Amino acid sequence: MIVHLAEQTSDHENGAFERAVRAAADSGITKPTISESSSTNQESSKTRLSNKKAPDSPDLLSMYRRMVLCRTLDERIWMLNRQGKAAIMASSQGHEAGQIGSVEALQKGYDQFYIYYRDLAVLLELGLTPTEIIKGFVAKEGEPLSGARQFPTHGAHPEYGIINLSNVVATHIPQGVGAALSAKMKGENRVVIIYFGDGASSAGDCHEAMNFAAIHKLPVIFFCENNKYAISVPLKNQMAVGSVASRAEGYGMPGIEVDGCDIMAVYEATFEAAQRARSGQGPSLIEAQVERYLPHTSDDDDSIYRSQEEIEEAKKRDPLKMLKDLLYSSEVLDEEQEELINKDARQIVNEATEEAEDAPYPETDDFFKHVVGDASV
Amino acid sequence: MTIKTVLEAVHDAMQEEMRRDETVFVMGEDIGARGGVFLATEGFLQEFGENRVIDTPLAESSIAGVALGAAMHGMRPIAEIEFGDFIWPTINQIVGEAAKVRYGTKGKLNAPMVLRAPHGGGVRGALYHSQSVEAFFAHTPGLKVVTPSTPYDAKGLLKSAIRDDDPVIFLEHKRTYRLVRGEVPDDEYTLPIGKADLKREGSDVTIITYGLMLHHCLEAAETVEMDDIDVEVLDLRTVRPLDTDAILATTRKTGKVLIVHEDNKALGIGAEVSAIISENAFEYLDGPVARLAGPEIPAMPFAPPLEDMYMIDSEKIANSIRQLAEY
Fold it and tell me: Number of folded domains in chain A?
């Protein structure tokens, strides 16, 4: 973990940061390093609002189970696309640890999750069922986010705090900041996490939103899932600096680079950012370095712009494999249990696929419903 | 009743709504200590404090986007864009996003926000302080677009816009701000969005207009009285949704319609009004639907003779009325 601390950050933040580093180190899972810091040993009770503790081994096993489910579901949806049943799919394979680790650090049903199109695991973690998700991809009745009006995974689920209004990259970042402004004005202790990719970090809306959030010390976590490609455009053509997180200093907030394939590292970073947000210390920018194992979407052909060798290299740090290895080495998981987990996931996804495929398409009766004003003019 | 300017009416509407409902707040450039470049929020910072009167960075997309986010989470933001000419960075957040909230979530979310902007020309504002912006937003299903012309309408409609559960673009013609005065009730009132108002009754020719042009049209209507032309003037007040019933009623009454707007003619509000008439009241027409609108040049020039050439005035309107009356 690399932390970019803005000069303006207070001792409180340094204290929180110190503890994050210690907690991560104590866990024995992450090996945090500090690139830039003016840490002090001062601590503040303000940073201890949440009672959440770092997940221990049983939680990690549960997270592994959920990660397997997400990967299995992701693979199935990709297959449905290849079978001509799902129109479009943006795979989350390689992003799962970043997504599950961050959600785990937040308050489900209370915090707000402004996600983007490559956040399958976030949807699962927050409560959408595999059936509901597949219904989105095959555009069937009962799709909960938009009634299959929108692209898969788009729309909103207010009870779960899921908002994925738009397919236009980065437009949701200022909206998430507005949600945080609302939380602050209403005196709520809610955190808003905004997920986006490295491509979105270049958009003007991203800059405007970060600046606004930092000025007003809003309870926001900017969570960049940096998979090094914006469709086909590599990082070197996206930014002249080495990291997205390094920009945080320019806004006056902490920027944290974290291995997005390491679920514990992500959890810790998000947990600390949430503490800062809840205690009135404002936003944080987390850059989770993840991998994208498949093309941008099912309509993309990444063999045009990146080599198979590069993908194979990236698979060496597959978040699923990393967590599995950890669980094996901790003797929390064995082959028998692993197979059981895989089997369970396959069964869940099989049943979900069947149910979603059997569901009817939406009726056209409500085509004109939920239109503002008069649909005629 | 008290005599107020349009600007005072706008100010009072926001002030009353902020007093009435604590989820209402204002955000925009220079609206805090400065009270807005036109003073529409004068005294707000002192009365409501900086939590509800937010001086924003000079970044219009985030003004709209942050307002939209707050609106989707229980607040009622009034976002001010300092001049209509600066509204273009908000198009992505307003046309692309806010307009689609309700439909795109199948009614799970809505966005009760107002985007206010002073717009229009005739103030020596040149290319970038004179633009008319209504047609761009009015084309968009999911938005309401209000263009008041009088203090009474501005106050009643702005209060309705603030209470509306969906995004409303509220365009105040900056020339009307201090120029136009009128009676405003002292008691609480609101006016319905989407209802036109017959500002003058007549029998020979109808003028359909909105915003600043209403006042020039009323002046022209008086001028042509000496030509024995009895003019009816319908003020649209809202350009989306259009009040189709009112448009058709006056068309059936006079049989001759002149549409007047400051915005340029091609693909503008007048084109839509004209189409509504020809589709629904063709048999009532005694002449072609006429349009008098801004010229097809990119924007309003600075030098007085050039600006005057752009702007529509009562004389130009009177001439158009006479031509149509003679048809």
Answer: 1
Q: Do B109 and A163 make contact, defined as CB atoms within 8 angstroms?
A: yes
Contact B65 A372 (CB under 8 A): no
Q: Which residues of B64-73 are buried (b: 16+ CB within 10 A; e: fewer)?
A: bbbbbbbbbb
What residues contact residue B286 under an 8 Å CB cut-off, 6+ apart? B255, B256, B327
The whole-angstrom separation of Cα B240 and Cα A27 is: 59
- A211 in contact with B, Cβ within 8 Å: yes
Q: In order of start, what are the domains of chain B with their CATH numbers? A: 2-184 (3.40.50.970), 197-326 (3.40.50.920)
- Name the token pair of B73: 């989470």
Q: Which of B267, B155, B280, B100 is nearest to A165 (CA)?
A: B100
The stretch A359-374 carries a mean pLDDT of 90
Q: What CATH number is attached to the domain comprising A224? A: 3.40.50.970
Please tell me the predicted confidence (pLDDT) of residue A374: 59
**Active-site residue list of A:** 292, 296, 305
- C-alpha triplet A28, A31, A32: angle, nearest 5°: 125
**Cβ-defined contact of B61 to A174 (cutoff 8 Å):** yes
Is the CB of residue B102 less than 8 Å away from at least one CB of chain A?
yes
More reliable by pLDDT, A176 or A34: A176
Distance of alpha carbon A155 from alpha carbon A256, whole angstroms: 29
* Residue B61 in tokens: 């997309």
Is A374 part of any domain?
no
Give the orientation angle of helix B213-223 with respect to helix B314-326, to 10 degrees. Answer: 60
| Residue A364 in domain | no
Q: Are A161 and A126 in contact (CB under 8 A)?
A: yes
Assigned domain for A19 exists: yes
Write down the pLDDT at residue A9: 41
The answer on pLDDT for A44 being more than 50 is no
Assess B304–A contact: CB distance below 8 Å, yes or no: no
Q: Are A253 and A6 within 8 A, CB to CB?
A: yes
Across B249-268, average pLDDT: 98
ipTM score for this prediction: 0.95
Query: What does pTM read for this prediction?
Result: 0.91
| Domain of A111, in residue numbers | 2-358
B2-5/B181-184 β-pairing = antiparallel
- Among B57, B106, B141, select the one facing A155 at the smallest CB separation: B106
The answer to the question of residue A325 being in a domain is yes
- For residues B17 and B161, what is the distance between their CA atoms, to the nearest angstrom? 10
Over residues B21-63, the pLDDT tens digits come to 999 999 999 999 999 999 999 999 999 999 999 999 999 999 9
Residues of B within 8 A of A205 (CB-CB) are: 61-62, 65, 92-93
Q: Is A224 within 8 Å of A243 (Cβ atoms)? A: no
